Amino acid sequence: MMDGPTSTTDGTGARITEPSPDAVLVRRTLEEIAPVADKVTSYFYALLFVRDPALRELFPAAMDTQRDRLLKALLTVAERMDDGAFLGTYLGHLGRGHRKYGVEAAHYPAVGEALIGALARYAERSWDAESEAAWVRAYTAISQIMIDAACEDEAKAPAWWQAEVVSHDLRTSDVAVLTLRPDAPYPFLAGQYTTLETPWWPRVWRHYSFASAPRPDGLLTLHVKAVPAGWVSRALVHRARPGDVLRLGPPAGSMTVDHATDTGLLCLGGGTGIAPIRALVEDVAEHGDRRQVDVFYGARSGHDLYDMDTLLRLQKTFPWLAVHPVTGTRGPLPEAVREAGPWTGRDAYLSGPLGMVRQGVDVLRGAGVPTERIRHDFPAELAVVGAGSAEVRSVHGADALDVAVEVVAQ
Where is the Globin domain positioned along the sequence (predicted)? Predict the structure, then answer.
C-alpha cells in the first residue's frame, strides 16, 4: 500500500495536509523526466514490446497519439496520489473499461516493469532505491484497483457491445448524427459517454457522448464532428453507412442530473458538445421536472449550430427551458454566459473542447458558482493543467484521462 498523507498545523492552528512520502518521491521523478518525456515514453514502449511482443497486438498500428498520453497520465496520478476516493472511483472505471481492449490481469506486471525500467534510465539524478520502492508501491496499488474492478464487472456486463448503424444524417459538411442499435441492452444515463471502435481503424477507440436520454426502443444517438487528423471521426462522418457495425465500450461519465433536487441547470455546449446537453434536457423532461434550464449553445457561426432546430422545438414544448445561441460574433461562449448571469443558484454543466470547458469553469467560479456545482468530464486535465506537454484531445463529454496503466490498451 502507498503511504498516506500527514497533517500538521500552522501558527494559527489551521490544519495543513502534507503529501505522503511516496507522493513526494513520485513527483520528484516526474519533474526530472518532464523535459525528456518523448524519450521516456519511446523507451517504455520499446521495453514493453521487446519483453512481451504479444502485447503489441493490443495497441493501434500508429503509436503517435499513444506516446503523447503517458506523461500526462503519470502527472495526473502523481497529483492525486493522496486522494483515495478519486483514485478508487476513477481507476475502477478504467479497470472496467480496459476489458474491451482485451487487457488481462497477467498484462499488468509487464507494464509495471517497463515503466520502472524507463524511469530508472532517464531520472538519473533523482532515482534511487527509495524512489523505486515508492513507484513499485504506487503502481501495485493502482493496478490492483483496476484488476479488482474488472473482475467484478465481468460477472455483470459484457466487455463490449456490437452496434449497427441504422441511420446516418450528415448535418453539415463535417458533422454527422448517427443512430445505433446495440445487440443487447445498453444501460446508460443522460450525460454519459461511450468509447467506440470502427471496423476501419481496429484497436483505435474514441469517446463520444450520447445525444439523447435512454429511449424505449434502445437506440443510441451520437453527434460526430470530423477533425483533420481524426481517423475515427472522419470515418464515422464520411464513410459509415447504415448496416455498418461498430463496437461500443461500457458507458461512463458523471455529468448527470441529480433528480433528488429541484436546482436549476445552466448548460454550456460548444460545437458537438451540445450532444450530452440535449440529453440532459430530455432527461429533465422525462422525469417531469419543472426546474429552470438555460442552455447556451456556442459555435463559430450560425451554420455550425447544426442542432438548433431541435433545441428550439424543445424550448417551445417546455416553458422551463431557455435556449441561447452564441456565435463567434458575440465572443467566447463562457463570456456570454457570464454577462447573462448571475448563476449562483444553478448546477452548471459544461461540454465541449477542453479550452472552452477550462475557461467556462474559471468564469463560473469567478461569478460565484461553487466548484462542487460545476460538472464536466475533464476533472483530471483541469487538475494538472500546465504540468505537462501532452496535448489533450477533447470530444465533447469525453473521458478525461488515461492514467498510467492506460498505456497497456489504447
Answer: 17-151
